[in-house]
């Protein structure tokens, strides 16, 4: 059989609310042309993020009922710890309420002002937490990873020569750790190869610097290795994931992605000293060390979810269903980032809206037009998220890529939902010159995309 089906059937459904184009035009205007400011009930198909938006399984819901809500030493924590350690393999497993809490705790514990944190491409909250600790987040993805038109099996790879130069220049004193994000979300959901992780490990060993993973989408990365890297075709996703983590000294994870969680995160680390320091801070801001800001029931759902995500039938469907969206859009002539990522398809905003200069925010304008046209919510990862303005001259520096991400929640939408999305985008592409540009009305200094407002130009 050629057809790859959803390896689950639907037991509970959540109705969608239809809106008209006129309603949506008014709603997005009232939201300051910022899709983050829309009410979710006004969105038909929500591809803003794949984070915390997945559907839980019957086993996860059963786990919810099993949750042990004891303040200290809950049974649910030990299940969680065993599930995470069984895959990650590090000494200490510290629960947190989500990925950015892990980032903040780790950065506050081990990053000093003036430090440099090299990585492939840091996610936006990771970058913000590193910068908040007074350090520099340095993106060293390979050149291919910066070019949306280049096809490469592992576009998330870190440039090993650049990493070596960075460590030689900054020195061990100023680099508390190297952080590799799998898959590379900001670079297009692109995987990192095992060979690249091994290369980074060898360099980190030479300089005596720990190597950490941002493991939000580790299972998708493992499956790409199975599909694309010679020698891994016969290995299970679990074996590959274990090998990936075995090359690291620790990991941070948003468990809202590849653990099928609606909430949750973890820090998994070998260093006793770092774990002590992180746990002290955890108690100050998140909660006791056996729940880290989560309910016992959340820990149960995550323990089940992190195991389920490595199911090969699921990962086969996941990667194939994302590629289905991308391939159909490409066939309709829509400019995309190539190759198709694991959790998302990325439209090339600059090419889609070639009539809009960078200052008119082509990717963001496309995301607004997409909502107006068919009620689909997507997220710009480009000029608004990463553009920076020179305080003295007022001139803008735009990022290398101005993308619009269609992030696909896990096990949530069916193929006909995706056919609708493809059709809507293909139609919009036909009429692309009608898409109006936008400019900032209000631009917050930190993480501007969440709350900025805009007006049409
Ligand atoms: N790291 C990566 C690679 C991420 O993609 C995210 C979140 C985080 C860390 C932070 O985790 O949201 O649990 O605090 N990404 C979401 C997204 C928000 O839409 O890509 P969090």
% residues in beta strands: 5-15%
Instruction: Please count the helical segments.
Output: 16
Class of the largest domain in CATH?
A: Alpha Beta
- Uncertain runs: none
End-to-end separation: 51 Å
Bound molecules: ligand F0G
Return the structural class.
alpha/beta
Number of strands: 16
Name of the CATH homologous superfamily of the largest domain? Type I PLP-dependent aspartate aminotransferase-like (Major domain)
CATH topology of the largest domain: Aspartate Aminotransferase, domain 2
- Write down the oligomeric state: single chain
Biggest sheet character: 5 strands, mixed
Structure at a glance:
Helix content is 41%, strand content 13%. It has 457 residues and is of the alpha/beta class.
List keywords for this structure.
alpha/beta, Aspartate Aminotransferase, domain 1, Aspartate Aminotransferase, domain 2, 2 domains, 457 residues, 13% strand, 16 helices, 3-stranded antiparallel sheet, binds ligand F0G, 5-stranded mixed sheet
Structure explained in plain terms:
With 457 residues, the protein is α/β, with parallel strands linked by helices. The chain folds into two domains: 21-50 and 311-456, Aspartate Aminotransferase, domain 1 (Alpha-Beta Complex); 58-308, Aspartate Aminotransferase, domain 2 (3-Layer(aba) Sandwich), CATH 3.40.640. It contains 16 helices and 16 strands. It has helices at residues 21-30, 58-66, 75-88, 99-110, 124-132, 160-174, 194-207, 218-228, 237-246, 272-285, 296-308, 312-331, 349-352, 362-374, 383-386, 415-430; strands at 45-46, 92-96, 116-119, 136-139, 178-181, 211-214, 250-254, 265-269, 344-348, 376-377, 379-381, 388-389, 396-397, 403-407, 438-442, 453-456. A five-stranded mixed beta sheet has the order 2-8-7-6-5, sandwiched between helices. The chain has a three-stranded antiparallel beta sheet with strand order 9-14-11. Helix 2 (58-66) packs antiparallel against helix 11 (296-308), helix 4 (99-110) runs parallel beside helix 5 and helix 6 packs parallel to helix 7 (194-207). The longest helix is centred in the last third of the chain and has 20 residues, at 312-331. The protein is globular and about 60 Å long. It starts with 20 loop residues before the first helix and ends with a strand. The chain binds ligand F0G. Residues 49, 51, 98-100, 123, 125-126, 181, 185, 214, 216, 254, 256, 265, 407 line the site of ligand F0G.
């Amino acid at each position: 059989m050629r057809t790859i089906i959803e390896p689950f059937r639907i037991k509970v459904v959540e109705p969608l609310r239809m809106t008209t184009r006129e309603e949506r035009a008014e709603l997005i205007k009232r939201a300051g042309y910022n899709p983050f400011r829309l009410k979710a009930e006004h969105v038909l198909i929500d591809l803003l993020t794949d984070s915390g938006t997945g559907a839980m399984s019957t086993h996860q819901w059963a786990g919810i009922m099993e949750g042990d809500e004891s303040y200290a030493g809950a049974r649910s924590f030990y299940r969680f710890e065993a599930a995470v350690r069984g895959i990650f393999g590090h000494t200490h497993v510290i629960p947190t309420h989500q990925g950015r809490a892990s980032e903040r705790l780790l950065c506050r514990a081990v990053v000093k002002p003036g430090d440099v944190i090299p990585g492939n491409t840091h996610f936006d909250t990771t970058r913000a937490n590193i910068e908040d600790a007074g350090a520099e987040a340095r993106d060293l993805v390979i050149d291919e990873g910066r070019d949306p038109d280049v096809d490469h099996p592992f576009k998330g790879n870190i440039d090993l020569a650049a990493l070596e130069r960075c460590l030689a220049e900054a020195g061990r004193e100023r680099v508390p750790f190297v952080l590799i994000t799998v898959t590379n979300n900001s670079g297009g959901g692109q995987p990192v190869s095992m060979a690249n992780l091994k290369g980074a490990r060898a360099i980190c060993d030479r300089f005596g610097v720990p190597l950490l993973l941002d493991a939000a989408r580790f299972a998708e990365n493992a499956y790409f290795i199975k599909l694309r890297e010679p020698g891994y075709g016969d290995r299970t996703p679990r074996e590959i994931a274990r090998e990936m983590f075995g090359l690291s000294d620790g990991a941070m994870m948003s468990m809202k992605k590849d653990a099928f969680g609606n909430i949750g995160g973890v820090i998994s680390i070998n260093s006793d000293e770092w774990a002590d320091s992180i746990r002290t801070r955890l108690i100050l801001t998140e909660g006791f060390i056996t729940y880290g800001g989560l309910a016992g029931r959340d820990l149960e759902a995550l323990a089940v979810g992190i195991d389920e995500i490595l199911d090969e039938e699921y990962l086969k469907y996941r990667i194939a269903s994302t590629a289905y969206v991308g391939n159909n859009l490409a066939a309709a002539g829509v400019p995309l980032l190539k190759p198709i990522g694991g959790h998302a398809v990325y439209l090339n905003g600059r090419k889609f809206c070639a009539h809009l200069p960078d200052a008119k925010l082509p990717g963001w304008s496309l995301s607004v037009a997409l909502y107006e046209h068919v009620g689909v919510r997507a997220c710009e990862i480009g000029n608004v998220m990463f553009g920076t303005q020179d305080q003295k001259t007022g001139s803008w520096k735009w990022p290398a890529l101005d993308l619009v991400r269609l992030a696909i929640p896990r096990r949530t939408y069916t193929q006909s939902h995706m056919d609708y999305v493809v059709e809507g985008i293909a139609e919009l592409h036909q009429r692309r010159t009608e898409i109006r540009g936008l400019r900032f009305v209000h631009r917050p200094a930190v993480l501007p995309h969440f709350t900025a407002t805009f007006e049409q130009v």
